[in-house]
Structure formats: C-alpha cells, structure tokens
Amino acid sequence: MDQARDWLRNAESIVALTGAGISAESGIPTFRGDGGLWRNFRAEDLATPEAFSRDPALVWEWYNWRRELIAKAKPNPGHRVLVDLERAKRDFTLVTQNVDGLHEAAGNYRILKLHGDIWRLRCTSCNAEWPDRRVPLPKLPPKCQCGGMARPGVVWFGEALPPGILEEAAHAVENSQVLLVVGTSAVVYPAANLIPYAKRAGAKVIEVNPTETPMSEVADISLRGPAGEILPRL
Ligand code: NAD
Questions:
Q1: Residue 34 — pLDDT band, cuts 50, 70, 90?
Q2: Are residues 197 and 103 in the same domain?
Q3: Range of the domain at 211
Q4: Range 63-84 burial, b when 16+ CB lie within 10 A, else e
Q5: Which residue of 15, 113, 141, 173 is 20 to 30 Å from 61, comparing CA positions?
Q6: What tens digit of pLDDT does each residue of 111-155 get?
C-alpha cells in the first residue's frame, strides 16, 4: 500500500483504467461475479449483436432494466478519488470500460469511454446517435426520427471499439508513469491489452480488485479489496 501511494504521489502522468467493479459499490451489478444474472440470462449472452438481431425487444428490456438501476446509482468514494487525481495531476486520463456515466457524474472530464454510453442511442438504419436519459423508455424498441430501430449506444461483445479511441488510450498509457487498474476482470479485449502495454512502456501497474485476475501477474502491485475502500487510502 505504501509503495503504491508513493508511486501515485510522485507521478505527474497517470492513467486509470476502470471496469464494472468500480461501480459495484454504487449498486450496479458487474457482468462477472455474483449478482450478474437477469431472468436467468447471462450478460455475455445479451450484450451481443447476435442477441439483438435475434430478439431486439428482449435485449431492450434488459437495457431498460439496467438503465433503471443505473439511474438510481450515485458515484461512490472510489469514483471520487479519480476526480481528485484528475485535479491534482498535470496529466491524468481516465480510460473506462463502463457505460454507466458515473465517472462524469462524479466530476471527471478527461474520459475515454472504450465501450460507449448506455445513455446514448444509435439508429440501426441511418447511424444517427443521440442522448436519451428517459427511464423507463416509453416504447421498446425505441425508434429514430428516420423510422429505423434504435440500439443502445454501447459496444457489444464481438464489436469494434469507437474509431481512434484505442489509439488515444494507448497514447495516454505510453506517456504515463503509473497505470491504475480498478475493478476490471481484465478478460475483455482489446481493453485488457492496455495493461501489458503499459508495463512494456515502463509504467508501474497498480491493480485494485477484491479478487485475482489474469493481469494480476503483470501488475507490480495488487491491492485486494473493494475500490471504495482501497482508493481513498491511496
Ligand atoms: P466484469 O464484470 O468482467 O468484472 C468486474 C470485476 O470487478 C471483477 O474482477 C471483480 O472482482 C471486480 N470487483 C467487484 N467488486 C469490486 C469492487 N467493489 N471494487 C473493485 N473491484 C470489484 O467487468 P469488466 O472487466 O468491466 O468487463 C465487462 C464489460 O462489462 C465491460 O465492457 C463493461 O462495458 C461492461 N459493464 C459495465 C458496467 C457499468 O457500466 N457499470 C456494468 C457491468 C458491465
């Protein structure tokens, strides 16, 4: 813990990579681990383009339910530490796999959202994108002005990330002295690649997670415990 604190204190350039675990203490279920089930469906089976083309109404019901959960959630102390870091450091980039918007709600500004945003919708015919925070959505599946069916503005398993975003994240990581990895199972690619990439580029890697991950062995330090408790101690 002391070593991690020193690295963070002395670094001018830091990247934080977050995953669903940082929002767990705000009451938002993670995909992997306890409480990830909805009506006996696994998230991995619903968050795919195939699931959506098979049954858009089912996938939308699940997203509507997740939007309701997320709408009630508030940022927790873990989110707030990342706001303090952004304010304190010359160079801080937050790279998140989360789609819940809690990092903005907490007050971070420099955020790269690798997997999109659950509060945005995208037309499956004309590709238009727009924000929609209504909870619940009045009609499922929602429609675009052009009449096309809308989909959630998130990146599903098997889909490409928004153009250019991975390059931006990699660039931030290359220039960082510390990569702080919080609440990710580190099994979703290409996001997880940022961890060994940081290591090769010479950054110290600090992982915060209650359980071991495949990237624990890449990390210089693994701090075991919930983000809302560990991050404030750093
Ligand atoms: P994941 O569900 O695969 O893994 C969650 C990780 O968080 C696990 O390693 C778990 O041990 C850890 N964890 C659980 N509670 C924690 C806590 N209190 N503090 C710190 N860590 C904790 O999540 P992932 O790695 O982000 O990848 C899954 C995909 O799921 C991502 O692409 C993401 O877009 C999506 N997702 C997002 C949200 C969200 O926006 N809140 C929620 C669920 C899933």
A1: low
A2: yes
A3: 1-27+75-115+161-234
A4: bbebbeebeebebbebbbbbbe
A5: 113
A6: 999 999 999 999 999 999 999 999 999 999 999 999 999 999 999
pTM over 0.70: yes
The reply to whether 109 and 99 lie within a common domain is: yes
Instruction: Establish whether residue 75 lines the binding site of ligand 1, counting it when its CB lies within 6 angstroms of any ligand atom.
Output: no
Q: How far is the CA of 95 from the centre of ligand 1 (A)?
A: 14
If one counts the domains in the chain, the total is 2
Contact 122, 150 (CB under 8 A): yes
Q: Using a 6 Å cutoff on CB, does residue 211 contact ligand 1?
A: yes
Same domain, 121 and 212: no
pLDDT above 90 covers what percent of the chain? 94
pLDDT, tens only, 149-188? 999 999 999 999 999 999 999 999 999 999 999 999 999 9
Task: Write the DSSP string, 155-167.
Answer: PPTTPPPSTTHHH
Q: How many CA atoms lie within 13 A of 165 on its CB side?
A: 18
Reported confidence tier of residue 41, pLDDT bands at 50, 70, 90: confident
Q: What is the CATH number of the domain that holds 62?
A: 3.30.1600.10
**Do residues 95 and 112 lie in contact, with contact meaning Cβ atoms separated by under 8 Å?**
yes
Q: Is 184 in the pocket of ligand 1 (CB under 6 A)?
A: yes
